[in-house]
Structure formats: C-alpha cells, structure tokens
Specification:
This protein is α/β, with parallel strands linked by helices. It folds into 3 domains: 120 residues, 3-Layer(aba) Sandwich (Rossmann fold), CATH 3.40.50; 54 residues, Dna Ligase, domain 1, CATH 3.30.1490; 124 residues, 2-Layer Sandwich (D-amino Acid Aminotransferase, Chain A, domain 1). It is built from 13 helices and 15 strands. The strands form 3 sheets. A 6-stranded antiparallel beta sheet has the order 14-13-10-11-12-15. A 5-stranded parallel beta sheet has the order 3-2-1-4-5, sandwiched between helices. Strands 6-9-7-8 form a 4-stranded antiparallel beta sheet, sandwiched between helices. Helix 2 links the parallel strand 1 and strand 2. The longest helix has 26 residues. The termini are far apart.
C-alpha cells in the first residue's frame, strides 16, 4: 500500500517545478537549510522551505520561507499539527531532523502520503532499532558487525567483577546527554540512577568517526562519507575532517544494508581503535548535525533528494566526494525584532517544565 502511494506521489512530482519542503524540529539547522536552498537553485526549481519548531526563538525558523510553531513532540498533538501544515500548505516533502520525533513520524508515513506528502524517513522497525541502543547492539552483533559490548545498567552493577572504564548512557538518548565515562564502582552506582533507561557499554579508546550515508528512495546505499570528529560541543561536532577510508566506508555500507529499510541520510558513529578495529557505537536514521561538511565535500544530499522527489535518477559517484576537507564551526547570530513576547512565552514554558520535573522527582522520592 505504502509503495503504491509513493509511486503515485512520484508521478505527481515528476513535472513539478515548485516544491514545498517541510523541515521539522529545525532548531539550529541553518547550514542544512542553506544547502537545500542552493540545491533548489542548482536544479532550477522554486523551492519553498517551511520550518516547524516548538519555539519561535529557534534560529533556523527565522530564515525559512514559512515558519510554523507546533506543540512539543510528547504533547500528543505533534503529528496532528504537522498533518495540518502538510494539508494546508500542500507540502510535497517532509524531513524530520531530531531523534525524539522519529518514532511518531515513522508511524504516520501513510497519513502524510494520503495528504500528498512524502515523509523521508526509514521504516518503523529501523527507527525502533536505532532509537534503542540495546536493540542496536543486538542487531549489530547478530550481523557479525564489530560493536562494543552493551548491557543494562542494573545487570552490570550487580556483577562481582568489573573491567573499568565503562561508558554509561541512556538507552534512547541523543546529543550525548546523560553520557558518562565510569571509572569506579562508586561512580557506576551513583550515576546509573540519574540516567533514564541507563545502559553500560564497554569503553573503547580511539578516534571517533561519524558516517553520513545516503540511501535512495529505492533503499539502495549510494554513498558513505566518513568524517573524523576533531572537536565536539554540546553533543554536536564543531570541528571535523573528511577521511576517505575504504575500510570505514565498507563498514558503513554494510550497516546500512543490514538495517534494510532505510531512506534518506543515515548517520552512523564508530570508533577506530589504535589497532585499526572499526567498532560501531551508534546509528541515527536522520541528518546528522555535521552533515554540512559532507555536503560541502561533494556529497550533495539535498540535491539528490530533490532530484529523486522529481522522479529523476541522480548520478552518484560513491567516492566522488573530496578527501581531507575540514569544517571549523563558529557562532553566528540571528537577530529578532520585537522578541519580548516570544521570550516571555518561552520562559513560561521552561518554567512550567521545570516545576513539573521537580514535582516528579519529589513524587518519586516520597
């Protein structure tokens, strides 16, 4: 049913020269927004970019053609709000950008299709595997792909023997929130209860690489771009380097094929040890924050996506991107006029959220 609907959507857009794109949870993705604008210009199409976010103070939402403020993802109203935008604005393509929204959007693919919109996202099963790091570990292990041993925190803390250090993280976390290097039993016992759904990974020394992998609309792996993480700030790469390493690229290709039902840009993280082992630590079925580096190096994901939406077959050389290209990020400001009301509303929301979290902690401790 979904494939038949997608074929219908493809036929409708083949001769289309005006494309309406909705980027959800757009946040700080200014570079990605600009990359899509450049791609639209290079293809000679009128690309109308809509952005959705829960706050009007999102930097990128100031720069889209049409901004939309939507409820929080966990409000129960998020998908309804997106569907309303899709229907009202005649959106052709929806691309989600953060982990926490992926399960809801993956489950609503048919709903968006019925409204004439393609949601560029992997299948529900792929999203489920990638969101749950314990499932990721099991899936990789079953496929014979090298990955650090991963267990539930409670199982590890009860062990009689330990091999420190460990790496503690949330089972369904993102952006390195709640991640800790654990060096003692006291740290393991103290920090585990503070991390929601805590899991413990074998600690791996080495150079961390992020791979941007393009899987086309027919689920074929077309391009894998490794970039070495030189510096990270608040969970996102701030300095990176393209490393055209065939061995790392082969592992990424194998992971994407193993998942089987991917579409669009998939982000994979691995650590290359001093001994040369390539150990996969995480998979996120969405655009990574550092994807602009791969795009700049020649892997033009936005252009390929728009071409496919228009029914074209992009020519993709899997090794056509440039090697040894660095990205050095810096802060850039977006200025908002008459922002007091928006600031007030956002502060009230944050205040309410903090009160709710405080009450929740009191309830749990009582």
């Amino acid at each position: 049913m979904v494939q038949r609907t997608q074929r219908t959507l493809r036929k409708k857009t083949q001769r289309k020269r005006h494309v309406r794109l909705l980027l959800t949870c757009i946040g700080r993705r200014v570079e990605l927004l600009r990359a899509f604008k450049r791609a639209g210009e290079s293809l000679g199409i009128r690309l109308e970019i809509h952005g959705a976010d829960a706050t009007p103070l999102s930097p990128a939402i100031q720069l889209v053609d049409h901004p939309h403020i939507v409820p929080d993802i966990d409000s129960g109203k998020y998908i309804d709000a997106l569907a309303d935008i899709v229907q009202r604005e005649k959106i052709d393509l929806l691309i989600p950008l953060i982990d926490s929204e992926l399960p809801a959007i993956a489950s609503a693919v048919e709903r968006f299709s019925a409204l004439g919109c393609r949601a560029l996202i992997s299948s529900e099963s792929v999203v489920q595997v990638c969101r749950d790091k314990l499932l990721t570990y099991r899936k990789l292990t079953e496929a014979g792909i090298d990955t650090p041993t991963t267990s539930l925190w409670i199982a590890v803390v009860e062990q009689k023997r330990h091999r420190f250090p460990y790496y503690l993280k949330p089972r369904s976390g993102s952006a390195a929130k709640g991640n800790y290097v654990i060096r003692t039993l006291d740290e393991l016992q103290a920090l585990g209860p503070l991390v929601q759904g805590a899991i413990v990974q074998e600690f791996v020394e080495g150079a961390e690489h992020t791979l941007d992998m393009y899987v086309d609309f027919e689920r074929r792996v077309r391009c894998v771009v490794p970039r070495k993480r030189l510096e990270v700030r608040t969970g996102e790469v701030s300095k990176g380097l393209i490393v055209k390493d065939p061995a790392i690229m082969a592992v990424g290709h194998r992971v994407a094929e193993m998942l089987g039902e991917c579409r669009g840009v998939i982000t994979m993280q691995c650590i290359v040890t001093p001994q040369g082992r390539i150990r996969v630590i995480e998979i996120n079925p969405r655009f990574g924050g550092g994807a602009p580096l791969s795009i700049h190096a020649g892997a033009d994901f936005p252009k390929w996506i728009l071409q496919e939406l228009l029914g074209q077959r992009p020519r993709i050389n899997p090794t056509g991107f440039r090697d040894d290209v660095a990205m050095l990020r810096y802060d850039e400001s977006v200025f908002v006029q008459k922002a007091s009301r928006e600031l007030q509303v956002t502060n009230y929301k944050l205040q309410d959220k903090r009160v709710a979290e405080h009450r929740s902690k009191l309830f749990r401790n009582s």
